[in-house]
Amino acid sequence: MLIDILMTFLSLALILFSCFIFTNAIEWFGKKLNMGQGVVGSIFAAIGTALPETIIPMIAILYYHDPKAKEIGIGAIAGAPFMLGTLAFFVTGFAVIAYAILGKRSFKMNADLNVFSRDLSFFLVIYGVAVLTTFVRDFPVLKGAIAIMLLLSYIVYLKRSFSDECAQCEDLDVLYFTRIFKVKPKLPWIVLQLLLALAGIIFGADTFVKYVEGLSNFLGIAPLILSIIITPIATELPEKLNSVIWVGRQKDTLALGNITGAMVFQSCFPVVFGMLFTSWNLTGITMVTAVIAIFAAALNLTWIKVRKTVNPFALLFGGVLYTVFLMCVFIRF
Question: How wide is the angle at C-alpha 39 spanned by C-alphas 125 and 44, nearest 5°?
Fold first, then answer.
């Protein structure tokens, strides 16, 4: 029990440390490739930090033939976009407010609205179609065709992202490897720091989940609750921590793009995997998470379309939606 608690905190510290290294490296990577903040946040950072929550359900579904493992896999797949659309937005909004109160930045967010709007629009369409596919799951050919369409849609998203103009990364801190090894910030050193940071994030997230699962089993928590609540919180930590770091540096496009880009990525690859290798039967709490994720994205998209701004206090509403979800869980269980 004590070992589980200690290792949980140590793995959390490793994730946090790796996120500091990752955000530093990914900004330099984007600068070297002359990429805008939208691409850096929504694609490079999003894909990198989405790896833990992408790998975990795949392992659960492929290598464990126990029906409970597939249940955990589906729960983790549905739980990832939900956690990003609720808790990650809440943490980001809260971080902006906290930094502003401490005098580190202003309450006003300077995020690129085109990036935020683009990502949420793609997510709503892609994930909405994926969720509706549960109602035609008994038609394998149709389900397979939809899965292929969702994969191809990510190519469309990439093309759109790379073609959109966005401000490039500026005011970069010195590359950490440059400071440590006294070398110039050339691409090989940037890539090496990036890979080491990703390795730390993945290893830390995997270790975190392992020991949190140990604590959950000790406390007698149901597997579905573990997969929908605990595991996504652990695996989504990189996105949350990256966003907290970036809003502290007033790089709001990177902060929000890391979250919304991960939502688009999660709605394609892990979801498609779940559609192809499971019954894709979204019911009960799993369906609730999917509906809330869609509602959260639609709410934020409506806000920026009407208000023409991103407001940290509006992002806090993600916490309200997450609380509603917890109430549904407690009522059911």
Answer: 95
Q: In terms of Cα–Cα distance, which of 250, 310, 258 is closest to 22?
A: 258
Cα–Cα distance, 27 to 50 (Å, whole number):
17
Contact 48, 196 (CB under 8 A): no
C-alpha–C-alpha distance, residues 203 and 208, integer Å: 8
Are 226 and 9 within 8 A, CB to CB?
Answer: no
Both tokens of residue 202? Answer: 């993945």
Q: Single out the residue of 300, 327, 245, 323 nearest to residue 85, CA to CA.
A: 300
**How far are the Cα atoms of 94, 106, 130, 246 from residue 101, in angstroms, in the given order?**
11, 8, 41, 17
Cα dist. 78→130, 193, 280 in Å?
Answer: 10, 31, 10
Q: What is the mean pLDDT of residues 163-173?
A: 71
Find the length of the chain: 333
Q: Which domains does the chain have, with CATH numbers?
A: 2-332 (1.20.1420.30)
**pTM value > 0.85:** yes
Residues 6+ apart with CB under 8 A from 329: 225, 228, 229, 285
Using CA atoms, how far residue 93 sits from 109, 140, 266, in Å, is: 10, 41, 22
Q: What CA–CA distance (Å, rounded) separates 22 from 193?
A: 7
CA distance 236 to 214: 19
For 89-124, the pLDDT digits (tens) are 999 999 999 999 999 999 999 888 999 999 999 999
Q: Is the dihedral of CA 41, 245, 227, 85 positive or negative?
A: negative
Tokens of 195: 């890979």
